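SAMPLE LOG
Freezer: B-3
Tube label: C17
Construct: single chain, 291 aa
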Amino acid sequence: MLGLQILIDGFAISSLYALGAIGFTLMFGVSGVLNLSHGAIMVVAAVVAWLFAGSYGAGPYGGALVGVLAGVVTAFATYLLVVRPIQTSRSIPGEEKEIFVLTGTLLWGIMLQEAVAYLFTNNPKTVRPLLPGVVNLLGVRTPTNEIVTAAISWAAIGLLWLLVNRTRTGKTLLAASINPRGLTLLGFELSRIYILVWAIYGVLAGLAGVLLGAFLGVSSDNAGTLTASAFSIVVLGGLGSVSGSLVAAYVVGYLETLTAYLISPSIRTVPVLLLLVVVVYLRPQGLLGRR
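STRUCTURE (predicted):
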């Protein structure tokens, strides 16, 4: 029975990790940006969903929708106020812009984290679940919200796959990740492509934040941990590899779940960090990354 419980819980948390990391991966793959304010954007989405669902009477669905919208708005603010000014600056040498973007998004994430703590305190907040209650799944009592979390996560990942692989827009995104200079020679504007990527990223990050808030609860203190988790998954799977991020998310999710159940929840991240060190040492390009 314990094994089945670990299987179910691990699948739910891994699906959520996959949703959170896939937007991070897409962003880096297409625009080359490692957004270190990722966790803070998720926290903003979750807190806004919590606020509107409770204080403003929007209900769980209305709160979730506003929370996702808040994720999109915060993502665009990150791009327009932090990333784009650095990328278009003439006073910053081209070879140094990447480190400036890393530093800028890190500081922006800290600012968002402190703003959330100032306005709403750093106490954990739980978003109202979309479907309350408990179901009996193969003899294991499982919160309905846990199943909904996994289902929505994979529905979003599936829609992203269809967008990227079955539409003209998606093929443009793939081309931008492979050869952006060649794409500009064909008459495409990279600025528009980047705006589209940030929009998709905002939806994914906002949705992941709302689902996380309903599944485990969030506080402003979680921002750094969420960014580190997504970064670890992306590095483990291979920078820019969407399929690698999906595999890595399940490796991380199940490893953390096994550690929490069999050893102690307080050290659930330790085995993941050890695995990351081993993988980076033996296979620097990640599990499914390319040299």
